[in-house]
Amino acid sequence: MKFVFYANTDWYLYNFRLSTAQRLQADGHDVVMLSPPGPFGGRFAARGFRWITLPMDRASLNPLREAVTLRHLVRILRREKPDLLHNFTVKCAVYGGAAARMAGVPATVNAVAGMGYVFTSNDLKARCLRPMVQALMRGTLDHRRSLLILQNPDDAEIFRRSRLVARDRIHVIRSSGVDTSRFRPSSMSGRDGRLRVLLAARLLWEKGIGEYVEAARQLKAQGRDIEFVLAGAPDPGNPRSVSDEQVGRWAAEGVITWLGHVEDMPALLSTIDVMALPSYYREGVPKSLIEGAAAGLALITTDQPGCREVVTRHGMDGLVVPPRNATALAALVARLDDDRELLARLGAKAREKAIGEFDERAVIQRTLDVYERLLGTDMPGGSLAGSAS
User: Fold this and answer.
1) Cα dihedral sign for 140, 146, 152, 158?
2) pLDDT digits (tens, 9 = 90+) for 33-56
3) Burial tier of 57 (Cβ tally within 10 Å: 0-12, 13-18, 19+)
4) Can you tell me the distance from the alpha carbon of 260 to that of 245, in angstroms, rounded to the nearest whole number?
5) Which residues of 187-197 are buried (b: 16+ CB within 10 A; e: fewer)?
6) Alpha carbon 279 to chain centroid distance?
């Protein structure tokens, strides 16, 4: 069978969906990657996947440009004739859902990991766009030959309450999963006694970047020898992105160590003690938190949708900080700096939870089960795939 994976960046497909594509490929299926041009797309060929580029501007509101994008997408789908189209992110779900109907694609899966800028921001532009986007979602996602995958129950409740998609077409699959054999605890962290804290994310203000930097500044002023590391790049396609210049100023001030995009996350995490994500964003289930959990790091995050799926009990499987509160974040980091026994206990519990709830093999199998439900008896050769190994 042929599957097309469609996302608004090649980076997302490579970093979050490559394992699912490889599972399908190993089972004898054809997977095509579809995204706008980008630096990661060239890597797909080395993995045995075709990559098709689509002219698409994530931030565009120009009706003519958007109509051209939709026309290109329909042409691609008519040419490729996939058995199933899997769309990722809100914009791709809306465009992909509409294009799939026009192109006669038999089955469509829409995955929305987090509600995105339009639903999370309270600025004027986002508030004006929200009703229009909701109407588009209602018209394109709620179709009898499509299913919706969300990453947490809070987002599922929003979709149900807003009647964007019928209840029986919504599936909750928590996170995109983590390779718990690749991300594992290391003895390297804390080797010099100095606590190292990491925030790894797209550099959006809603991820709590400002609070993280302010907490680092407060602890430095107290004379604490704690290294605050920031991994990730600005996101020019998002209006709420932190600028390169701003992050550069923080690094020059000496309050943080900025690494930019990090290719080898397991190697980085082997040198870290604490993963912090003081987000006030409607996350899906943050990848950085489940990677940190698998690596046996102590976690600090907020009680926000998505984040609360990873840290559910304060003091048991992580620490919970109020959103937009740099002083409270600084106090929790200082607590872990002073109590290394708690640091180790939280890390061990996080690892245990990652293995039990977020292992990517189980997550991929749940995704294949959704494909199976949609494709059903239309599939040649019976079952799409066996149980997860």
Assistant:
1) positive
2) 999 999 999 999 999 999 999 988
3) middle
4) 13
5) eebbeeeebbb
6) 13
Q: Are 176 and 288 in contact (CB under 8 A)?
A: no
Torsion of CA 35, 41, 46, 49, to 10 degrees: 10
DSSP code for 278: -
Alpha carbon distance 312, 320 (integer Å): 9
Measured between alpha carbons, how far is 136 from 38 in angstroms, rounded to an integer?
A: 27
Q: Work out whether the CA dihedral 293, 239, 10, 150 comes out positive or negative.
A: positive
Cβ–Cβ < 8 Å for 78, 124: no
**Token digits for 374?**
């949609």
* pLDDT tens figures, 159-192: 888 888 889 999 999 998 999 999 999 876 555 6
Distance CA 325, CA 335 (A): 16
- Give the Cα separation of 129 and 237 in Å (integer): 16
Q: Is 175 helix (H, G, I), strand (E, B) or coil?
A: coil
Contact 287, 314 (CB under 8 A): no
**What six digits make up the tokens of 359?**
């292992």
Convert the pLDDT of each residue in 84-124 to its tens digit: 999 998 889 999 999 999 999 999 999 987 655 566 566 77
Nearest to 231 by CA among 189, 261, 267: 261
Class of residue 9 by CB neighbours under 10 A (exposed 0-12, middle 13-18, buried 19+) = buried
